[in-house]
């Protein structure tokens, strides 16, 4: 699974419902059972196979199902625990040796643990559990959900992590892998798809029944179902050296997306073939469907039936570079899961990090190989460096964490798993070399194909395949403990001395740790690599030139230098490779936040970086300065100087490469240059308030809104509409909301709503937070809340609104993620007073719920650290900005 993280939300959204349709009273009843398992089920019964027969009429409020599960019972028992959440079960029996044993279904836990009590003891051995039931559709991407697009209803599923239990009774754990034989009865003429190829369609009274072949062994969370009058384009992935036969390929999308299926059909085959080449194995399932959903804020690797948000895979001609980068990275991420996650699945949720960390690395790696001109690979390093701010907190977790309760599962899907985990994989792969690392991966897949594996088994395969057991020590030191190492480099007697410690923010005192760090350093052009496995290491590197202590940027660590060496390195920021530029700027900012670097260096670094040719590196310093402004570390008294500084840094670079907002005006430029221009326009307008560029965009946006779609390229749609709201205030915001809600074009809808949410005006915020429009989907509402909470001018207002409306916002939300994600909308608050207020009002509720506690505690700690930094450095920051003007 890959969540789509908006930059301003910093991975705050997830593929789970914000609110779901409330179940009927009978289905909602839960009886407490102190003996019920809170995490793993016991081995009292093991599933062998499922037969699921659904009736899905997407325009109805409920669906129904008939579920048969073949099981092996370990020993005679009067009761069994399994899973089902808010299902109205009308029949529950066990079939044993031709006899029927009645059972009573009782949900005993809000996360969906169920106890089956049998009328007579269920004997040991083979048995079949049979259920008839119905349930409520969700209204966002969780469980079995339906969405009205225009005047037409469609349904999809999203089951990771533990939402399959909201659609059918079962043993909803990743360690149980069985075949599934699925059928869907629905309206004649409707499309239906699942994990396996369709085997036939038959009449079922006034309806039609779609029968699917039995799947390969799967865990419950990888099952997929879609139903409705979908557009469906079909083709095939041509044979490859690893696969002798064509692979059937299909794309499904709602009718509102007509004309947008060609790109994903054309580009998916190349990504599949690159993955087959890497793994040395054919695609592990008999077909592949790429499925689009309007409310999926990310993507999901259902075996043979991947699901994505509309905007990820349904691209227009002339789609911006960033959108094509997202396509390549996310599609490669999800398809890599078909091997690493679906073919070989985690034994339990504490091993899900390996699926996601590996797929995150693989998404960037294969995405970069798919279209090198898009410069996708550097995004992996950027994501890793930004994860370090989470990893550096005292409250946290290692990548590989024990999970003992269902309520803890959500914490495994965060930027530690994706950003840190992917970066650590990249570091180990770079240390071993591509071929040795690949050998370990291939060995792992061969050893555990169509089964489950633990982290330890992966480590062993990696060591065996690479022939280098030292990799285990290095990798485990990063995977099994929390924190970010910082390596201090000092000159001593003509040598360089490296001292490692745990990085800490100002005012923070985390427990000490030690790592085995694959460390590569360059002095001028001379590169040397070693393993830092002691607190202090004398390096063989010599010379008085420029020191770059993280060659290529692939190392998951920060570094600090002596003042003179920092000055030399900052002077080279414009010419560093993208990964090294990002690594160096991150370490410089980390030194500032630890109290080891002055604020004036940050301004110098931002100005120097602006000349870097890479689109990400060029604006990295500016994005970090903007973060200070948003959090209030740059106060109103410095506003004019700050705006002038940002305009002086980025406007000349924009003028040098030219800017025309018209559609397609710059299509002849290299993709990364197009993205650089888009980034520069965002900074010049959003942070610099450049009057001339703003006026140009406003004129183009007004023409666009008047019907001239060629006046404004979609790359500038969000920022252009933002200028319209800035100038037009509340009336303009209302107009854009209407345009957005009336549209099923994902780019226009998100741009229009996002522009309104980013206005910085409290009157607009009040209007948006009170908006009650039936076209406003839960995912739209989440986007508005986070947009308002992360925008200068409305962050405090929205924070207070969240505190006042927290209970209402959570009401009816049964998805595992929302409890933990909502408090993160408060992450841009700053100061001990704010932290105390949020903790006093929300802390007891979060802790009582027992879900999302870690994420909440991280948010509180981050708000406190912001206050510490403001107290220590705000005057220095103001002086640096004033001096730069």
From TrEMBL:
Residues 547-864 form the ERAP1-like C-terminal domain. It catalyses: Release of an N-terminal amino acid, Xaa-|-Yaa- from a peptide, amide or arylamide. Xaa is preferably Ala, but may be most amino acids including Pro (slow action). When a terminal hydrophobic residue is followed by a prolyl residue, the two may be released as an intact Xaa-Pro dipeptide. This is Aminopeptidase. Binds 1 zinc ion per subunit. Residues 264-473 form the Peptidase M1 membrane alanine aminopeptidase domain. Belongs to the peptidase M1 family. It comes from Sphingomonas oligophenolica. InterPro entries: Aminopeptidase_N-like_N, Aminopeptidase_N-like_N_sf, ERAP1-like_C_dom, M1_APN-typ, Peptidase_M1, Peptidase_M1_aminopeptidases, Peptidase_M1_dom, Peptidase_M4/M1_CTD_sf. The lineage of its organism: Bacteria, Pseudomonadati, Pseudomonadota, Alphaproteobacteria, Sphingomonadales. The keyword Acyltransferase does not apply.
């Amino acid at each position: 699974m890959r969540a789509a993280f908006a930059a301003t939300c910093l991975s705050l959204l997830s593929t789970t419902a914000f609110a779901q349709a409330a179940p009927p009273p009978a289905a909602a009843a839960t009886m407490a059972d102190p003996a019920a398992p809170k995490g793993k089920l016991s081995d009292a019964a093991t599933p062998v196979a499922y037969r699921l027969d659904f009736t899905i009429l997407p325009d109805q409020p409920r669906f129904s199902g008939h579920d048969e599960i073949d099981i092996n019972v370990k020993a005679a028992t009067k009761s069994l625990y399994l899973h089902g959440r808010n299902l109205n079960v009308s029949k529950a029996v066990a079939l044993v040796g031709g006899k029927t044993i009645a059972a009573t279904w009782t949900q005993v836990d809000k996360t969906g643990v169920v106890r089956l009590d049998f009328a007579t003891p269920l004997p040991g051995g083979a048995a079949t559990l049979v259920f008839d039931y119905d349930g409520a559709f969700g209204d966002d991407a969780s469980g079995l959900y339906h969405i009205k697009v225009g005047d037409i209803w469609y349904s999809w599923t999203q089951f990771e992590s533990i939402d399959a239990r909201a659609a059918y009774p079962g043993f909803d754990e990743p360690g149980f892998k069985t075949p599934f034989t699925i059928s869907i009865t629905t309206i004649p003429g409707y499309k239906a798809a699942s994990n396996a190829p369709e085997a036939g369609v038959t009449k079922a009274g006034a309806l039609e029944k779609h029968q699917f072949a039995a799947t390969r062994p799967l865990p419950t969370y990888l099952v997929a179902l879609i139903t409705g009058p979908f557009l469906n384009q079909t083709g095939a992935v041509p044979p490859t050296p690893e696969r002798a036969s064509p692979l059937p390929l299909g794309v499904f999308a709602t009718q509102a997306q007509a004309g947008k299926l060609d790109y994903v059909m054309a580009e998916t085959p190349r990504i599949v073939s690159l993955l087959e080449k890497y793994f040395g194995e054919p695609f592990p399932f008999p077909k592949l469907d790429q499925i689009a959903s309007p409310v999926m804020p990310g993507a999901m690797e259902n075996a043979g039936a991947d699901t994505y948000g509309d905007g990820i895979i349904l691209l227009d001609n002339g789609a911006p570079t960033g959108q094509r980068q997202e396509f390549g990275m996310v599609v490669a991420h999800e398809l890599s899961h078909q091997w690493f996650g679906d073919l070989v699945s985690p034994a339990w949720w504490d091993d899900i990090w390996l699926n996601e960390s590996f797929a995150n690395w693989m998404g960037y790696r294969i995405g970069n190989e798919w279209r090198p001109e898009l410069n996708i690979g550097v995004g992996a390093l950027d994501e890793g460096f930004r994860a370090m701010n989470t990893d550096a907190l005292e409250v946290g977790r290692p990548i590989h964490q024990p999970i003992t309760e269902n309520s803890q599962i959500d914490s495994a899907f965060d930027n530690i798993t994706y950003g840190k985990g992917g970066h650590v994989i990249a570091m180990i792969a770079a240390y071993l070399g591509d071929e040795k690392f690949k050998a370990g991966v291939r060995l792992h897949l061969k050893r555990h194909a169509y089964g489950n594996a633990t982290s330890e088994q992966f480590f062993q395969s990696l060591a065996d395949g690479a022939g280098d057991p030292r990799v285990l020590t290095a990798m485990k030191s990063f995977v099994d403990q929390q924190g970010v190492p910082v390596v201090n480099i000092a000159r001593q007697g003509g040598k360089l001395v490296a001292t490692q410690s745990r990085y800490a923010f100002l005012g923070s005192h985390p427990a000490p740790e030690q790592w085995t760090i694959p460390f590569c350093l360059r002095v001028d052009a001379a590169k040397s690599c070693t393993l830092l496995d002691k607190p202090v290491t004398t390096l063989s590197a010599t010379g008085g030139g420029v020191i770059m202590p993280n060659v290529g940027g692939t190392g998951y660590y920060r570094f600090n230098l002596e003042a003179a060496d920092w000055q030399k390195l900052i002077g080279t920021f414009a010419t560093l490779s993208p990964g090294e530029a990002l690594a160096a700027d991150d370490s410089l900012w980390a030194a500032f936040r630890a109290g080891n670097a002055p604020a004036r260096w940050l301004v110098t670094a931002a100005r120097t970086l602006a000349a870097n040719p890479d689109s990400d590196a060029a604006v990295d310093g500016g994005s970090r300065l903007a973060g200070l402004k948003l959090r209030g570390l740059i106060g109103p008294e410095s506003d004019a100087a700050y705006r002038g500084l940002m305009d002086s840094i980025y406007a000349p670079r924009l003028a040098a490469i030219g800017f025309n907002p018209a559609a397609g005006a710059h299509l002849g430029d290299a993709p990364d240059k197009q993205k650089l221009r888009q980034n520069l326009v965002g900074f010049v307008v959003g942070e610099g308030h450049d009057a001339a560029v703003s006026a140009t965009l406003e004129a183009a946006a007004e023409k666009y809104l008047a019907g001239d779609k060629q006046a404004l390229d979609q790359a500038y749609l969000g920022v252009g509409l933002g200028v319209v709201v800035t100038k037009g205030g509340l009336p303009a915001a209302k107009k854009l909301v209407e345009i957005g809600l009336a549209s099923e074009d994902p780019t226009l809808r998100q741009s229009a709503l996002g522009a309104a949410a980013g206005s910085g005006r409290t009157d607009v915020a009040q209007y948006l937070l009170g908006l009650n429009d039936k076209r406003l989907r839960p995912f739209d509402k989440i986007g508005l809340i986070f947009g308002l909470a992360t925008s200068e001018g409305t962050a405090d207002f929205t924070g207070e609104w969240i505190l006042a409306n927290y209970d209402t916002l959570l009401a009816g939300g049964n998805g595992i993620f929302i409890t933990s994600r909502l408090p993160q909308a408060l992450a841009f608050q700053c100061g001990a007073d704010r932290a105390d207020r949020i903790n006093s009002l929300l802390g007891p509720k979060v802790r009582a719920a027992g879900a999302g506690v870690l994420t909440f505690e991280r948010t509180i700690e981050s708000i406190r650290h912001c206050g510490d930094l403001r107290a220590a450095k705000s005057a220095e920051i103001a002086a640096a900005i004033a001096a730069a003007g």
